[in-house]
Amino acid sequence: MSKPDDDFVATAADPARRSAAIADLTKKHRRLSLIAIIFILVSFGICIFGSKLPDGPMILAVLVPFILLFKCKSDLRLLRVIERLQSYDRPMA
């Protein structure tokens, strides 16, 4: 496994770090969503009003925030599932 994978596993295993990571990823998800929406609106504006820019870089500029958004969302879902499973493991008092 690579270092980012090892870091993620260590974060997922530690309840305190996991809770902090969930909070951080939630904020990151919001920011990436806004960035992706802005990039889409800008690209639509460029398409509507025309541009001499090549299509390849514009498509790449729109796709990159979505790729990062999907990765962030999957990490967030995984940490939330682990959090929920850990809460089921705890004995009821």
Structural overview:
By secondary structure, the protein is an all-alpha fold. The chain has one domain (3-84). It is 87% helix and 0% strand. The protein is built from 3 helices and no strands. Helix 2 (15-49) packs antiparallel against helix 3. The longest helix is centred in the middle third of the chain and has 35 residues, at 15-49. The chain is elongated, with a radius of gyration of 18 Å. The mean pLDDT is 87.
Helices and strands in order:
Elements: H1 3-13, H2 15-49, H3 55-89
Rg estimate, integer Å: 18 Å
Mean pLDDT: 87
The helix content is over 70%
Q: Shape, please? A: elongated
SSE order: HHH
The CA-CA distance between the termini, in Å, is 38 Å
Computed structural class:
mainly alpha
Summarize the main sheet: none
Care to give the gist of this entry?
The chain has 93 residues and is mostly helical. It has three helices and no strands. It has one domain.
Features:
93 residues; mainly alpha; 3 helices; elongated
